[in-house]
Automatic annotation (TrEMBL):
Pfam families: Autotransporter (PF03797). GO terms for cellular component: outer membrane. SUPFAM superfamilies: Autotransporter. Residues 785-1068 form the Autotransporter domain. Gene3D superfamilies: Autotransporter beta-domain. InterPro entries: Autotransporte_beta, Autotransporte_beta_dom_sf, OM_autotransptr_brl_dom. This is Outer membrane autotransporter protein.
Length: 1068
């Protein structure tokens, strides 16, 4: 080391160099010099350094490109005096990297690191876990206008009265602070960070100021002071004992120019513990703060004012996070208070005051104090101002948005988009626009939660527009003392209902859509109903003009009521007056009708012959209405006196649309006929409703009244009977196939055909099977005698069917199921002849498409049958009876209709005659056949009853007898396979054509409450021609047992069905 030991004092740089050249008593140590009398603690190192052991000597980076490093776990501490920093920077392009601790521990003052040379550039890196601290002053200060960059992942702290980082002196150089996620910049009793002019601060960690005893005011997280151009990007926490972030130009000797840009990222927090989250002082529109918030900004005024964002000048604010003030001592607590500019909110801006004082979501006003802090009259806004909201703006105890400054020429526009909420509380209006001209455009919700108005336009000349189908206003709307207008236009097909009071508007315009006004409105300006607009309600409006294409409709929703007009009412020639029964308009002045169209609303309950007053005018009626408009199925008489307009109704024919179905037309004709029989008699109220429906509504509702579900009982019964008859005469059931005992394959003898002679007459495949299964007999067999015997069998059966409805008829798609379990016995009288009987139990079910109803039945069946064979020909016949316990269900949605059920017992009868001929071939036997199957289904007269709702539309059905005669032509095919142990497997199938002569599934019905209205309802009709298919197999087991499985299908135009049968038989 080179050590310079100087005996003199106060050496300048020049005298020092001279001293080096001329003095012989000099000791040198590289980069280090000491003055006599200072001792070790007074040592100051010069040039680059690398501290690896604890030291108390101060360091200096004095030359270009000098570097300093403090190793991890190592302490560089200085405390000898308050004027010497622990590290002094005077050289340019220098850097200091700290992994350990750099501290100035003198409580009387002194900085840990200080840049003390103008124009130099310096970089400080404070690593994770590293500490830079000062006990009595700034931890880091640039005392000159230098360029400084700080990277902090550790702790930079001032413990008593100074800033953690002070760059206030930097006015032209770069000053950037990067505080990473583990970084802490903290000051006790002072601001945590002061950037310089055009400074940049990035924070992902914590920047925080704390109050200390004796210094409990004015301590901010970041204080830019009057340094303009500062940019702050926060993703961590900025927490000020007073304001979170502050700055601004309050020097009234300047033009007030100042700019600051703040971005608070998602998760970022900016908090003022006893002040504003962001506070920027100023005094005119030359100050602009650009704020983008995706996180949380909070103000809290414990001892003074505290706002979320407080900018005395102009602001460009974009918020998708939360900006909130929780309280303000003896002041208004405001989420945002600014002197004007642009605010775009999709998050939450909220002013609360937990101490019960006033609060605003947004206040628009200039300053209310002079540069000395003395109160002055609040100035007006400093520029045209726009607030666009799609989130929530709320004042818990006051206005959501308030313009409170002095009136001036600058304008205010408030655009509340769909989904946006502007909500006020207390006694103030949710929106108050003061003395400025304002435009309020609302697509969302404006709501007064307290006793104040929703909108108060103050003294400006302003306009309110309520647009779109989702717009809502809850609370009164006051047009103020200026000349203000109101437009309500929800748009075609949309509606807006308002129950509160409209006052002090110079005009109210009803635009496109339906607007219902139910409040006792007091405005005196004209009400204009535009083309495409409908004014409805039971409130009060001013003088009203209904323009061409506009509609006036007294009443509100289900309440017909009266609409009151204070003034005159004028209809244009092409306007519309739409009324409901019980609704009317009362006019305090004159009503001028101008031949406007008179139209009746749908769904009215009308007493025919009664005279209804639909309009009254105190100063008389001028002109008439055109009553040729839509009165649906009523005929109407319009009459007038001097002050009133009346309507009187009589029944007309029910008006159906073109192409209405036959079922609907039949029921409409029935109702028309009932009216024609007694034209002056009032129908039951439930049927009056039908005459007040549009044609399309009438068609839909009449379809519900036809009672079509009851027609499904017939189809279910026919399918159940068909399955039962097919089961009785199944030619391939166990015990009936392959031999002289049944009517499957042919035989020429009356004995069992096991002899060689018999086998010679058999088909070759049967002869081979017997030859393999039985040993050859030696000699003639013994004579066998036929013995009559029994077969007992049991069989589950069932299936489902779909039948398409017919739009012309008005029938609906119908799905039908039929299933049961049968048991019976065959008695074999003689070879090729048997008789039998069977019993079955089961059920049917059906349902109509589109929810038009359903039904089901419980069934008992019995049957007799017989079969005989003549050589290769056979003849079979069966008779069956079924008893059906039936229930139906349908839902009527018209009026007070409900669920209608019925319950009745019906019977079914059927028979089948079948003949066929066996044609044996080499491996397969074909059996062409023909069959006739007649059925009859009889139902008694029965009636419906209500299980919910009313029985107004319940029907009474006449007794009915329906027939179906089926003819079948087809062929069976079967083959027998010999198995081991004396068993055999018979495979069979069928294809056939069937034609059904079936009466239509119709029922005669009439209404219980209107018996004169009788009609025929027709259900879905199955096709006449069908293709039949069958596949099955019978397994002959040992010991007299056999098992059969069969699958059947029927296919026709618009219909198909599938059925399955299993059968177990025993022969003894």
């Amino acid at each position: 080391m080179l050590r310079l030991v100087c005996a003199g004092r106060g050496l300048s740089g020049r005298s020092f160099s001279t001293f080096v050249r001329t003095t012989s008593s000099l000791s040198l140590a590289a980069g280090f010099w000491a003055l006599p009398g200072l001792g070790a603690s007074g040592q100051v190192r010069a040039a680059s350094f690398d501290i690896t052991t604890n030291t108390t000597a101060a360091e200096t980076l004095s030359s270009t490109n000098d570097t300093g490093t403090v190793a991890a776990g190592v302490t560089l501490t200085y405390s000898a005096d308050t004027s010497t920093p622990t590290v002094t920077v005077t050289g340019t392009d220098t850097s200091l990297t700290n992994y350990g601790t750099i501290s100035q521990t003198n409580p009387g003052g002194g900085r840990a690191v200080r840049v003390n040379q103008k124009g130099v550039s310096f970089t400080l890196t404070n690593a994770d876990g590293a500490v830079i601290s000062a006990a009595g002053d700034d931890a880091f200060q640039s005392n000159k206008d230098a360029s400084v960059t700080i990277y902090n992942s550790g702790t930079i702290e001032s413990l008593g009265g100074g800033q953690a980082i002070d760059l206030n002196a930097v006015t032209s150089g770069t000053n950037e602070v990067y505080n990473y996620s583990t970084g802490l910049i903290e000051a006790f009793g002072a601001d945590a960070l002061r950037p310089g002019v055009n400074g940049y601060v990035y924070n992902a960690g914590t920047i925080k100021s704390e109050n200390v005893p004796g210094n409990a005011t004015g301590n901010d997280g970041i204080d830019a002071q009057s340094n303009s151009g500062v940019t702050i990007d926060n993703a961590g926490l900025i927490d000020g004992a007073r304001h979170g972030i502050t700055g601004g130009n309050t020097d009234t000797t300047t033009n007030g120019a100042y700019a600051m840009t703040i971005t608070n990222e998602i998760g970022g927090q900016i908090t003022g513990e006893d002040g504003s989250g962001i506070n920027i002082d100023g005094f005119n529109g030359n100050e602009l703060a650009t704020i983008t918030n995706h996180g949380t900004i909070t103000g809290n005024g414990i001892t003074g004012d505290g706002d979320g964002v407080d900018v005395d000048g102009l602001v460009y604010l974009i918020n998708s996070g939360t900006i909130k003030s929780t309280q303000a001592y003896n002041d208004v607590s405001e989420g945002v208070t600014v002197g004007g500019g642009t605010i775009i909110n999709s998050g939450t801006i909220e002013g609360d005051n937990i101490n019960g004082g006033d609060s605003h979501g947004i206040t628009l006003a200039g300053i209310d104090k002079d540069s000395s802090g003395n109160p002055i009259p609040t100035e007006g806004i400093y520029a045209d101002t726009t607030v666009t909201n799609s989130g929530l703006i709320r004042g818990e105890t006051g206005s959501a948005i308030a313009v409170t400054g002095a009136a001036n020429a600058f304008t205010v526009e408030i655009d509340n988009l769909a989904g946006g909420i502007i909500e006020g509380g207390g006694t103030e209006a949710a929106i108050y626009t003061g003395g400025n001209d304002a435009t309020i455009v609302n697509y969302g919700t404006i709501e007064a939660d307290g006793t104040g108005d929703a909108i108060d336009l103050g003294s400006g000349n302003s306009a309110v527009q309520i647009l779109g189908g989702s717009a809502k206003v809850n609370g009164n709307m006051d047009g103020g003392s200026g000349t203000s207008t109101l437009l309500i236009a929800p748009g075609a097909g949309n509606s807006f209902t308002y129950d509160d009071v409209i006052s002090d508007f110079s005009s109210v315009e009803i635009g496109e859509g339906t607007i219902t006004l139910n409040g006792a409105n007091t405005y005196a300006g004209t009400t204009m109903v535009d083309d495409g607009g409908t004014l409805a309600g039971i409130g009060t409006v001013s003088t009203t003009i209904v323009d061409d294409g506009g509609t006036l409709q007294p009443g509100s929703g289900g309440n017909p009521g009266t609409l009151t007009i204070n003034g005159d009412l004028t209809f244009s020639a092409d306007s519309i007056y739409r009324v409901a029964i019980g609704a009317a308009t009362e006019v305090s002045g004159e009503a001028i009708l101008n031949n406007a169209s008179l139209v009746l609303t749908s769904g009215n309950t009308i007493n025919v012959g009664e005279k209804y007053t639909i309009l009254t005018a105190a100063d008389g009626i001028s002109g008439t209405f055109d009553a040729s408009g839509t009165f649906y199925s009523y005929e109407v008489l319009t009459s007038y006196n001097a002050d009133d307009v009346f309507l009187t109704f009589s029944y007309g024919n029910l008006a159906l649309p073109m192409g209405a179905s036959a079922n609907v037309m039949r029921i409409a004709n029935a109702l028309d006929a009932a009216v024609a029989e007694n034209p002056n008699t009032q129908l039951p109220s439930a049927f009056n409703t039908l005459f007040a429906l549009t044609p399309q509504q009438l068609q839909t509702n009449l379809a519900q009244l036809t009672g079509e579900p009851a027609t499904g009982a017939q189809e279910g019964a026919f399918r159940m009977e068909n399955s039962f008859l097919s089961l009785l005469l199944d030619p391939f059931a166990g015990g009936r196939e392959g031999g002289s005992d049944g009517f499957g394959a042919a035989s020429s003898t009356g004995a069992l055909a096991y002899s060689a002679e018999s086998q010679a007459q058999m088909p070759a495949y049967l002869a081979d099977a017997y030859a393999q299964a039985l040993p050859a007999l030696k000699g003639p067999p013994p004579a066998l005698v036929y013995t009559p015997h029994w077969d007992a069998w049991a069989a589950p059966f069932g299936g489902g069917a779909f039948t398409a409805g017919d739009a012309n008829t008005g029938s609906h798609n119908t799905s039908t199921t039929a299933a049961g379990f049968a048991a019976g016995a065959d008695y074999h009288l003689a070879p090729g002849a048997l008789i039998g009987l069977a019993l079955a139990g089961g059920g049917t079910g059906w349902s109509l498409g589109s929810g038009f109803g359903s039904g089901h039945s419980t069934v008992f069946q019995s049957g007799l049958y017989g079969i005989t064979q003549f050589g290769n020909a056979y003849l079979a016949g069966a008779f069956a009876f079924g008893n059906y316990w039936i229930k139906t269900n349908r839902l009527v949605g018209l009026g007070d209709g409900g669920t209608l059920d019925s319950s009745f017992t019906a019977q079914g009868y059927g028979g089948r005659i079948e003949a066929g001929y066996h044609v044996p071939l080499t491996a397969v036997t074909f059996t062409p056949y023909a069959a006739v199957q007649p059925q009859v289904f009889t139902s008694p007269a029965f009636s419906e009853f209500a299980t919910s709702g009313s029985s107004n539309y319940a029907l009474a059905y006449n007794s009915e007898s329906s027939t179906q005669v089926r003819g079948e032509l087809g062929t069976w095919a079967n083959t027998t396979l010999a198995l081991d142990a004396g068993r055999s497997l018979n495979l069979f199938g069928r294809t056939a054509w069937a034609h059904d002569w079936q009466s239509n599934p119709n029922l005669d019905a009439s209404f219980l409450t209107l018996p004169a209205a009788s009609f025929v309802v027709e259900g879905a009709k199955p096709p006449a021609n069908l293709a039949l298919t069958t596949l099955g197999a019978t397994l002959d087991l040992t010991g007299g047992w056999s098992l059969t499985a069969k699958f059947d299908g029927e296919f026709g135009k618009g219909a198909q069905s599938y059925a399955g049968t299993g059968r177990l038989a025993y022969t003894w």
